[in-house]
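Known limitations

Files may contain more than one protein. Parsers should not assume a single record per file. Below, a two-record file is shown to illustrate correct handling: read the sequence, read the token line, then continue until end of file.
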Amino acid sequence: MSIPVRPGAGRPGTRPVAADPLAALLDLPGVRDAAEGARAGIDRLLRHRLMRNRSAEVSTESALRGARASAALEGVDVPLADLRAGRVDDPVVQGSLRTSVALGSMVDTWSRAPGQVLARLHVLAAADLAGRADLGRPGAHAGPRLAGLLSLVTGESSVPAVVLAAVVHGELAAIAPFGTADGVVARAAARLTGITRGLDPKAVSVPEVGFAELGREEYARALAGYASGQPEGVAAWLVHCCRATEHGALEGLAIAEALLRG
């Protein structure tokens, strides 16, 4: 179980554009500094000596812990040992696990056909929660807002990857395009954004654990702030995502150290 990334995949360079719709986000209070802190945390993880030849092992454990944490954010918290042993059959947990495991196969497609990837993520996340006819089909209410988000994913932006990932996460959670398992899908899409935009190209951090450690109530409060559309609410959400990313990097370091100890 892992989120495999092409060996030697490098970090994409900054891709500036003439009119970046997200550029102003960096001027919101605290966002620029928080993004730099998140980047520094991930860089510390990527410099760990285990990343030279055993990053796939870290990614495997990261996928498992990320799935557990994402389900916990949906209100279904199960022991990691039980999940590892295959003793959990809760549909939310199983959907989160399927989604986490499949992320590696979607890395090449995400930036080209994000709508296709979102549909696939929903099929995996909600297979036991929604009727077959509803799987992978955004509701009519998603409309132009979802289309606008997809254009951000396929377009170019000069903002740090952690900020773009936070926008993807916040937008999908606010739109709730599918009506079931939207939180799991949103977190998976955000993680894909971090991988493909070079934040965590080896998929070794665990941002979902970061959100869980900061607390479900704080997560819901920050999301509500983003959904309000008010500058202070958007800023608080972006900073929250950066803090979760830092925590997720520490979780990745803990995994690496545990592997070194055997």
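...continuing to the second record:
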Amino acid sequence: MITPSALLHTDAFLSPFAIAEAVRRALEEDLGRAGDITSNATIPAEAHAQATMVARQAGTIAGLPLAVAAFQALSPDIFIQPHVHDGDPVARGIPVLTISGPARAVLAGERTALNFVGRLSGIATLTADYVRHAAGSKLRICCTRKTTPGLRALEKYAVRCGGGFNHRFGLDDAILIKDNHIAVAGGVRPVLERARARIGHLVKVEIEVDTLDQLKEVLASGLADVVLLDNMDIATLQEAVRLADGRVVLEVSGGVTQDTVAAIAATGVDYASAGALTHSAPNFDVALDIDA
């Protein structure tokens, strides 16, 4: 029997506990208190079914481990044959999984499995398009915390499946000083000094700036590891790269789209983060067809 982890993207990690918990919540949401009353009323308990999950568009696949876990949670007699793995590019009409076993279990798991694969493949596909536009440069495409509540680990995993990279997973894994922190703390240097005085030696410090004067103040302090250049035009980004001269890592946010990412990459910045990767990714069109 194939395990969900066997279909994970080789360069991205998703905890088996995160998979199990997401699947449990999704099945509980869909099956409610009485299960699939339609299938239970119309399909004999002994009926067997075989179905194929098919990509109805071209793109990058993600979410197969969750689909497998959903079906397997409904019956120990489910057999699944994968045809691709997470992170694989697929053409329209390509079979993704073949599922066979008790018909009631196949039908009960259908929507949950498709929801996971559709949502995560949509993110992976959009990310892959951003990455394609930055090809040939050193720029890395990153996601943000603008994720669906409760699904952050899954959605950030999907970004990795598409060739992107992850920013913070939460407020607790890195310092990111934004404009409101600067305003409340009394300025760039005071906020950086307070941050450095409180954190451990393994915690990185990133600070957001929206002017070159702020960038100069950050550089003069020597207290930041990463500077987030917020909503700057291309000419300003070019000057920021010149001023930084490799002393800090530079990240761009705001206005990062497929239309702008190539020009952003050409400035020489290191990272570009786009909330759209997770909050605006179209659903990937995938279907489950019962084999005749």
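Parsers that stop after the first record will miss the second one. For reference, the second record is described as follows. The CA atoms of residues 100 and 275 lie 38 Å apart.
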